[in-house]
Amino acid sequence: MAVMIESLIGILLFTVLIVSLTLKNPLTSVGDYPPVIREKCMELGLIEKREQRFTRADILRKGIALLAFVFIFAVVLKQFNGADTFWKGFRDSYLIWLIIDWYDALILDCIWFCHSKKVRIPGTEDMEEYKDYRFHIRQSCIGMLLGLPACLAVGAITAIL
Questions:
Q1: SS3 of 62, please?
Q2: Closest C-alpha among 158, 161, 159, 160 to residue 77
Q3: Is the separation of the CB atoms in 40 and 122 below 8 Å?
Q4: Total structural domains within the chain
Q5: Where do transmembrane segments lie in this chain (predicted)?
């Protein structure tokens, strides 16, 4: 039951963060948009031309968020779930990670992003790539893999605490 409550809290926090940033300025999240849309934004001069998908600032921001996730979840799982072994810390954190990842892919990406006019970047509004469901599902699979080392770290820290 604790994992479900923690997942719902994680979903709420993730939604507030992602939706507010994207609605405020869709270009803030352009690294998470399908490649054709990013390329069109570069052609239009809305973002700087670059070879990499994410800027150093994007990577730093995501890295800090990931480190915060690892330490916060280790403490939360230890205190509220009684996770006192590596396996319990890893298992609970990865389950929460998966729930949030799937919510992001299915609800935020495939339902909200693919259909909301509010996330469209001026000059790209008519692009079909906004409804590229495969892109979002592939990104979710990558997210599932990225969660493994993060949750392994949560398990290790949980066992140490």
A1: helix
A2: 158
A3: no
A4: 1
A5: 6-23, 59-82, 94-114, 135-160
The neighbour count for residue 50, using CB atoms within 10 Å, is 11
Q: Which of 26, 21, 18, 20 is nearest to 123 (CA)?
A: 26
User: What's the pLDDT tens digit per position in 15-58?
Assistant: 998 899 889 999 888 888 899 998 998 899 988 887 676 778 77
Report DSSP state, residue 120: P
Contact status, residue 134 vs residue 48, Cβ threshold 8 Å: no
Question: Which residue type occupies 128?
Answer: E
Record the pTM: 0.87
Residues 127, 124: Cα–Cα separation, whole Å: 6
